[in-house]
Amino acid sequence: MSTPIPIYLVSPTDLSQNHADSQAWALATGFKGDPNTHCLIPGEGGTLAKVLVGQPKTIDTWALGHLPKALPPQTYTLGDDWPPEMATKLWLGWCLGGYSFTQYKRPTLAPEAKLLMPEGADYAYVTTTTAATHLVRDLVTTPAGDMGPEQLEIAAQALCDRHSANLSVTVGDDLLSQNYPLIHAVGRAYSQPPRLLDITWGDPNAPRVTLVGKGVCFDTGGLDIKPAAGMKLMKKDMGGAANVLGLAEMIMGLQLPVRLRVLIPAVENSIASNAVHPLDVLPSRRGLTVEVGNTDAEGRLVLADALWEAVCEEPAPQLVIDFATLTGAARIALGTELPACFSNRPELADALLTCGLAVDDPLWQLPLHQPYRAMIESSVADLSNISNSSYGGSITAALFLQEFIRPEIPWIHLDLMAWNIRTLPGRPEGGEAMGMRAVFELIKQKVAG
Q1: N or C: which end of the chain has fewer CB within 10 A?
Q2: Catalytic option among 69, 114, 226, 345
Q3: Cα angle for residues 385, 386, 387 (degrees, 5° grid)
Q4: In order of start, what are the domains of the chain with their CATH numbers?
Q5: Given 50, 214, 286, 300, which residue is catalytic?
Q6: Residues facing 167 on adjacent strands
Q7: pLDDT of residue 1
Q8: Where does the pLDDT of residue 108 fall: very low under 50, low under 70, confident under 90, or very high at 90 and above?
Q9: Among this protein's residues, is 300 annotated catalytic?
């Protein structure tokens, strides 16, 4: 085996002080030490002596994320000594940057650049988080024709098989007999019956955490059909389900001492003669009736039944968290790369934001502004699934979900994109895990701890 090639993060000052022997070559090739740039330094006999990488002002998870696809297919090592926490971040960023979605491409045997595990890095955390992130990306990026409710169930079963977890599934008309009417109503028009996936794992006496993920495998908009531009990316509308499966992979793979439950309402919001109509009134698991102001606001309907099941479990969970690609309003407010979070416990939201910053997985809190609750009133039912205003759409959606949360249960709602619309270091265009590592850190600190 050849000697691994060292990689050094360098600033312009480092270039002159610590790599003076390479400065002339770096300047000749135009390398100035800018972030997300690198310079290959030649050695004797046409070999590669080292790699210089521009150092950002703040070194984070993504500092090396662009390199796996940019460097020659050699074996590399970190040239400097790093504290364990930073070594873990740098290696994770490299591993995530090496991801490609190749399911539908011809196989290639082309060699890849490899980074040896840095000394002090957390092997279990990096390998498990990489596997979890790849799982999320694969699920979200897979076309809807190959990722319907049945295939999502298969993916959940495979996860359970890996970790000796239990999966129970309620399918089709059994949703009605077991009182999940909203999940049934949204998914009944598709050829694959709607279903509720219910995963349990861990010591029954451990602190309880329940995750709920929106699993709308494709969203046509229903009879309030989306235009083509709005429908194009709707294979990602099960991104909430994918993220909770990825988070479950982390929790189980790293053996957090919790009793984990994962609830995924898996449906397709399709169009057929039995599809939900605008202004239909539907019953819910909680007993509240819901007027369907728009059939394209279906995600909150399936989440409502799942959330009420989550908060009514006995003994009650210490924390309920839902992930959902819920509103365009959140994307307008925060863009596609920053998930919105809501919580009925301000201190819990603060802790989540802190965790997100610590692991370079940021979120932004939006308020559960109670005066907006009046906007989801209905004249013919207990609630409407849409607001009577075009403003504050992510807030009114969260307030709708809050109707299905018992106030004594700590709850966090994440409204996320689950998709990279541009390629960034370590984060290629396509399906993405967002908020997953932040929530894992929160659970580790506040529940498992």
Answers
A1: N
A2: 226
A3: 135
A4: 5-121 (3.40.220.10), 125-446 (3.40.630.10)
A5: 300
A6: 199
A7: 55
A8: confident
A9: yes
